Amino acid sequence: MASILFFLPRLKYHSLQVFTVWLLILFGSPLNSLGQKVIWSLEVQGDPTSFVTDLDVRDNGVSVVTGAPTFMTKYAAEGNLVWHIASSNSFGYNYGTSLCQDQDGFIYAAGYFNGIFSFNDAALISPTSEFDGYVMKLTPEGDVIFCISISGLASDRIAHIQADKNGNCYV
What we know:
By secondary structure, the protein is an all-beta fold. 0% of the residues lie in helices and 56% in strands. Mean pLDDT is 77; it is low at 1-30.
């Protein structure tokens, strides 16, 4: 049984930003013209400056979503909210651009920021007004294990992150 999770970012509804997340079973009982069975759908409402940038779904259906300003949200296979963490006490801009889960459910996330970036118990400071990249690892429960910045002389933005079956992280 194959499944796919997709989202429609930046769908405007009046003055609210609305994100729709659907989990589809591609080889289930047909419920629509494409022969797909919708397992769960979810609308998440936020302010007009928020948007979804990436999501990852494990084989067991557990999904995590990231976006900007930086947030991470984890959903159970049935679509129930497990946890949600957003950047706080930040000064400047911050964007979550990519995330993934390893086989043990640890979450690797990447993005970029300028100014002061605070996420859960981690805090980073950009030494210039340019963007710096960040990489973080979280437990399956959402606790930050590490959060590091990547900076150079110019703007540094991380577009993608991936973990292999051994827990190695690639950006």
